[in-house]
Design a protein that fits this description.
alpha+beta, Nucleoside Triphosphate Pyrophosphohydrolase, 7-stranded mixed sheet, two-stranded antiparallel sheet
Length: 206
Amino acid sequence: MLGLVVVQGFVRHDGGMPYNDLLESLQEVPSSGVREAYLRFVALAGDASLRRDGGPEHITGSCFIFSPEFDQILLCFHGKGQFWVQFGGHVEPQDATVAETAQREAREESGIADLVLLCPSIVDLDRHELHSGFSCSAHWDVGFAAVVDPTARVTVSEESDDVRWFPVDELPHQVPTGFRARLEHARRRAVSMIHSPGDEKDSLDG
C-alpha cells in the first residue's frame, strides 16, 4: 500500500519499508544542515534514492565497529578508494532498513557473523563524491555503530585489501578527508547511546 510522505515541503507517494524507515530515522537526528540536505535528497528521489540503479547518487549504509572501551576502531582498506574506512555498502533488496544494510555489510566485510548494531540510531551522515573507478558519482552514506571484542576473528572480503584494528587516536595516514573528525563524532554519539539511550543530542554538523 502506498503512503503519503511529506518532508521539507515536498510530497511523495512511496511505500517501501526502507524508505519510510530512513525518513523516520533522519527525522530523529538532531537538526543540522547535513540532515536537512539528506531529507531533501531522499524526499526528491523517493525509493530510487535507496537503489544503486536508481541514479548516479544514492544512499549507502555503513558501520563504525568500536572496541568495548571505544578506544579502538576496526577499519577495512578499501580496494577502489585506496584508503582505510568503516565498513559499508549499497542497500540490497533483502534489507528491510538502512540499519540492516549497515549490519549486513559489516558482517560480510569483517567476517564477524554475530555482529549486531548498538541500536538503529544514526551516528554519522556523510555525502562523498566518487572518482572514475566507481560506477556512481556520489554516496549519501548513513552510518551506525557496533561494539565488538578486538579478539574476535576477522577476515578480509573481496572488496577490501585488509582489515585491522587501530587506536582511535592513532589512525593510519590513508583515510578519507574529514574522517578523523567524523569518527570522533560517531564515537561520542555511540557512547551516548550506551549511557543515555534515546538521548543523543549532538548535531551531525559536528
